[in-house]
Amino acid sequence: MGDLWRRFVDDLFGRLGGPFHFRIVLQPLMAITFAVIDGVRDARAGKPAYLWAVIRDTGQRRELLKDCWKSVGKVFILAVVLDLVYQLVVIHWFYPVETLVVAFVLAIVPYVLLRGPVNRFARLGTRKAK
Questions:
Q1: Which of 6-15, 38-47, 79-88 has the lowest mean pLDDT?
Q2: For residue 75, what are the CA distances in angstroms to 30, 114, 115, 121?
Q3: What is the distance between the alpha carbons of residues 39 and 69, in angstroms, rounded to a whole number?
Q4: Contact assessment for residue 28 and residue 110, using Cβ atoms and an 8 Å cutoff
Q5: Phi, psi (degrees; rounded to nearest 5) at 117
Q6: d(Cα 71, Cα 66) in Å, to the nearest integer?
Q7: Across residues 32-47, what is the average pLDDT?
């Protein structure tokens, strides 16, 4: 079990350099761009902060998650494909759990963490403008 965990961590940190390392910056930037667009849209519509709404509003959770997937799903799929290519080129093997972890961290995490704060920041700007 220790060797499996060590390989997992080594493979994850190995992605920071070498071929395809551009995606470590590019994919979170794409997710952040979608988070900003959606956060501002939420603020204009008077919606609550995204992550807070997902956690608290069980009735709207499914719609909120669909909305998230619609915005960041392509970035997630691109992250999966690029990680698959990286693994085949560098590691010469495919580890699906590593791919899903990398794609989740590069695409979903930045989006979910920033959409709500952008919403709140945009609301502050609209209140001052009134």
A1: 6-15
A2: 7, 15, 15, 24
A3: 14
A4: yes
A5: -60, -35
A6: 9
A7: 93
Contact present, 111 and 100 (Cβ < 8 Å) = no
Determine the structural domain holding residue 123 and report its residue range: 2-129
Q: What is the largest CA-CA distance in the chain?
A: 60
The tally of domains found in the chain comes to 1
Q: How far is CA 125 from CA 33, 38, 39, 71, 87, in A?
A: 18, 16, 13, 24, 44
pTM for this predicted structure: 0.80
For residue 129, what pLDDT is reported?
54
Q: Is 18 left (phi over 0), alpha (psi -120 to 50) or beta?
A: left
